[in-house]
């Protein structure tokens, strides 16, 4: 008998939990699919290499993982997940016919959250999955709070630095382009001097919301980089695509028409863009491009290839 409590309450609002079932025996995957298919998004893989690819592409909440598989086995896959900053938060439960204490210890040492032996009881598996989904959801909420800028509500520099490192490694591994957009509010000190810091804070909040609205993909990241600077990370984006995003940002902030009494005009931003197949030095290149935008008169987009 299966428990009736739904698993959807353990997922972020608006979507069902996403589970990845990994086993080289399709019959075992089918058995687990019968348990979770009605209220979870279920992904399936019959080998470790494909499972790792799905983790990178779809970011499941939890992996139900067999140990003994040809090629990359369950322990190796778990170690790969826990070594990747973008994947290490994915919960892993081993589901295996290995039932010795040493087997369970090895699995937990590899980073698994739980260990279930075959043949499994559907109610027990469901209860353990629910527990891990609840823990992951709570951990994700706390992690999100730690990575949010308190003033603007966008991500903070700490989160950008972590994501940038991970995306740089991914870009190098997959040979895919990566772009950075660095934005600075023009003459912001004069704005604060003229209207006060409360007005300055409100200005930054409105600009942050506007910049965020210009991003279309869930993989794109906007962060407050410091003071009146914002930075945007654009995976799988070439220079032309990044320039398009930056120009949209510049136009959108200009369209706010926020009065700037310090310069007798409106608030504008300057943006520097860099992109490259080799992601090293992208932030430095974007900073150089930002300097060029300011030197050319501010309120515009400049770029260099990293």
From TrEMBL:
Protein name: diguanylate cyclase
Annotated organism of origin: Roseateles saccharophilus (Pseudomonas saccharophila)
NCBIfam families to which the protein is assigned, alphabetical: GGDEF
Keywords, in A-Z order: Phosphoprotein
Pfam family, one: GGDEF
Gene Ontology biological process terms in this record: cell adhesion involved in single-species biofilm formation; negative regulation of bacterial-type flagellum-dependent cell motility; phosphorelay signal transduction system
Taxonomic superkingdom: Bacteria
SUPFAM superfamilies linked: CheY-like (SSF52172), Nucleotide cyclase (SSF55073)
E.C. no: 2.7.7.65
Chain coiled-coil ranges: none
């Amino acid at each position: 008998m299966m428990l009736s409590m739904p698993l959807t309450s353990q997922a972020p609002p608006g979507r069902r939990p996403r589970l990845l079932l990994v086993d080289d025996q399709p019959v075992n995957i089918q058995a687990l699919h019968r348990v979770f298919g009605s209220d979870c998004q279920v992904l399936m893989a019959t080998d470790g290499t494909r499972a790792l690819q799905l983790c990178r592409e779809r970011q499941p909440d939890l992996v139900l993982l067999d140990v003994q598989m040809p090629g990359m086995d369950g322990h190796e896959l778990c170690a790969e997940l826990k070594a990747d900053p973008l994947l290490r938060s994915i919960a892993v439960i081993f589901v295996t016919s290995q039932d010795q204490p040493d087997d369970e210890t090895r699995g937990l040492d590899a980073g698994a959250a739980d260990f279930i032996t075959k043949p499994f009881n559907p109610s027990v598996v469901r209860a353990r999955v629910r527990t891990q989904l609840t823990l992951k959801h709570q951990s994700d909420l706390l992690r999100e709070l730690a990575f949010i800028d308190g003033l603007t509500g966008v991500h903070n520099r700490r989160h950008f630095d972590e994501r940038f490192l991970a995306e740089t490694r991914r870009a190098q591994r997959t040979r895919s382009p990566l772009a950075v957009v660095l934005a600075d509010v023009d003459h912001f000190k004069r704005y604060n001097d003229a209207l006060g810091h409360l007005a300055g804070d409100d200005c930054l909040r409105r600009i942050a919301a506007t910049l965020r609205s210009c991003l279309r993909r869930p993989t794109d990241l906007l962060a407050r980089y410091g003071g009146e600077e914002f930075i945007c990370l654009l995976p799988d984006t070439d220079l032309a695509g990044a320039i398009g995003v930056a120009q949209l940002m510049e136009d959108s902030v200009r369209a706010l028409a926020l009065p700037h009494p310090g310069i007798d005009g409106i608030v504008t931003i300057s943006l520097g863009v860099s992109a490259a197949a080799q992601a090293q030095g992208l932030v430095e290149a974007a900073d150089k491009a930002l300097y060029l935008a300011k030197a050319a008169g501010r309120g515009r987009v400049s770029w260099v290839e990293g």
